[in-house]
Design brief:
Blueprint: H1 13-18, E1 25-30, H2 68-77, E2 78-84, E3 100-104, E4 115-120, E5 127-130, H3 146-156, E6 163-164, H4 172-179
Helix pairs in contact: 3-4
């Protein structure tokens, strides 16, 4: 396996994508803000069902999802896409898809979401992946586990694919991209 080249850029993703040629990436896997108001500072006030962790508020509050221009650019610069939280802003992705990914968090009785949905550009069947939410090691409340990224790459990427993640967050995606040999 080759040593992957991971480039973490601290730039405005819209400015970066504007400079890219069409279809520069084989796959974009993104977990953008959903626009539901979560920011890590409120989850400790949940009901008695939840066992919340008092996360610190994180930069880029989840006040709004990206605008239409973001999705237009993402579709332009990538051949295929996996977009987490698309159920919250599906009107901004003007394409139908039979292939939604459902991440069943297997989180038991609480008042957090039981699952998260990802829209994909793939012409394939919808899939459910069951992964327990890690109890420790999370940097922020919306962090995706590394096992989820491993599953996504195993099922939707080909070795040698160049992958784009515009909203890296805690970088669990980058850890897995490097581990599995993806640029």
């Amino acid at each position: 396996m080759k040593n992957p080249e991971i480039n973490l850029l601290n730039v405005d993703c819209m400015e970066y994508m504007k400079g890219l040629p069409d279809k520069a990436f084989e796959l974009a896997i993104v977990d953008v803000p959903y626009g539901i108001g979560e920011n890590g500072s409120t989850n400790h006030t949940r009901s008695k069902l939840a066992k919340p962790k008092d996360y610190k508020a994180f930069y880029g509050l989840d006040a709004s999802a990206p605008d239409q221009l973001y999705f237009d650019e993402l579709l332009r610069v990538s051949k295929n896409q996996i977009i987490w939280g698309a159920n919250h802003f599906i009107s901004k992705i003007p394409l139908d898809s039979p292939c939604w990914i459902i991440w069943d968090k297997v989180n038991g009785e609480n008042d957090f979401a039981d699952c998260e949905l990802a829209w994909t550009s793939f012409d394939a069947l919808a899939k459910i992946v069951r992964l327990i939410v890690p109890k420790t090691g999370k940097q922020h409340p919306t962090q995706k586990p590394q096992a989820l990224y491993r599953w996504l790459l195993k099922n939707y990427a080909n070795q040698g694919d160049l992958i784009l993640d515009t909203h890296v967050g805690s970088a669990s995606s980058l850890v897995v991209f490097e581990e599995m040999g993806f640029d």
